[in-house]
Design brief:
By secondary structure, this protein is mainly α. Helices cover 73% and strands 0% of the residues. The chain has a domain of 92 residues: Up-down Bundle (Four Helix Bundle (Hemerythrin (Met), subunit A)). This is LTXXQ motif family protein.
Length: 154
């Protein structure tokens, strides 16, 4: 008789622990809805919402220009004044390109405007270069364009 009472008490305890545990969502039945909130469930079932999920983080223009200048400076043997002037031209060009890309215009129009901007940028950069540097700069641009075309054709 004593063992039956002990088993009955143990079964009752197990059942009450399971019920209490289920109320707090530990069994996975509560998804934060329908009155079983108790605070904890709502926070754990939500994804963090921040600006990083909306769009990828933009790389600052100065960083991009720095990478371009790292390549151009040794290739063209630029002096300090040329480096500063060309950096300023590139910063202005990249910012303008960003504005063009965000504009609400047709894709074909954007392409034409970006090509015109690229030509203007090249012309401004060439104004700061001597004849030898202009030849090297033109070769770098052609090499860059062939790489881009080969990537598109893949």
């Amino acid at each position: 008789m004593k063992t039956i009472q002990i088993l009955f008490v143990l079964a009752l305890m197990l059942l009450s622990i399971d019920t209490a545990s289920a109320q707090y969502g530990n069994n996975g039945y509560s998804n934060g809805g329908g009155g079983g909130g108790y605070g904890r469930n709502n926070r754990m079932n939500q994804m963090p919402q921040g600006p990083s999920q909306d769009k990828p983080k933009e790389i600052p223009v100065e960083v991009t220009v720095g990478k371009i200048m790292e390549k151009l400076k040794p290739e063209l043997n630029l002096d300090v004044l040329q480096e500063i002037a060309i950096s300023n031209v590139l910063i202005e060009s990249i910012r303008s390109q960003g504005i063009l890309l965000k504009a609400e215009t047709a894709q074909e129009q954007k392409i034409k405007e970006i090509q015109a901007l690229s030509e203007t940028t090249d012309r401004k950069i060439n104004d700061f270069l001597n004849e030898d540097q202009k030849v090297k700069y033109k070769a770098l641009n052609e090499e860059s364009n062939t790489k881009k075309k080969s990537r598109r054709n893949r």
